[in-house]
Design a protein that fits this description.
Number of domains: 2
CATH architecture of the largest domain: Sandwich
Distance between the termini: 65 Å
Radius of gyration: 22 Å
Helix content: 10-25%
Strand content: 35-45%
Strand order of the largest sheet: 1-5-4-7
CATH topology of the largest domain: Immunoglobulin-like
Number of strands: 7
CATH class of the largest domain: Mainly Beta
Length: about 140
């Protein structure tokens, strides 16, 4: 086989490998119709935690969904006497306190109002997860 023939053969193999990889991602990757909306993933360095705002937020439930995702639910009450948009960060931890996932949700709270909120993790294999209020900003 000539040098040009080998080069063409390698190019065909490379394209086939890329095609299989793209097909696999499309076949088994995340799906938009896969259940409750997952909160935004979080860079730990970007988490804001203001103690005055944190005092306004309660986590009232942490429950596993049928698809393996975990949903944290709670309530936020206006404690500053004005409209506010709070970014709530939840860490999903295992029994060893290892963070498995972090998600954020933004909650708009009107002056004098209390608002329910929820945020859902990615699917986790753990059976025992704790939803930890990590930050409020």
């Amino acid at each position: 086989m000539s040098g040009r023939g080998r080069l063409i053969g390698l190019a065909v193999v490379a394209l086939a490998v890329v095609g299989v990889a793209v097909w696999a991602v499309l076949q088994w990757g995340p799906r938009a119709d896969a259940g409750p909306e997952v909160g935004a993933s979080v860079d730990p360095a970007a988490i804001v935690n203001d103690p005055d705002l944190r005092a306004q937020v309660k986590v009232t439930a942490c429950a596993r969904e049928a698809d393996g995702r975990w949903t944290a639910r709670g309530e936020v009450a206006d404690g500053l006497g004005r409209d506010q948009a709070l970014v709530i960060t939840i860490s999903y931890t295992n029994a060893d306190a290892t963070v498995l996932d972090r998600r954020q949700v933004t909650v708009d709270v009107g002056e004098g109002e209390s608002v329910a909120w929820s945020v859902t993790s990615a699917a986790l294999e753990e059976e025992n997860v704790t939803c930890v209020l990590r930050g409020v900003g």
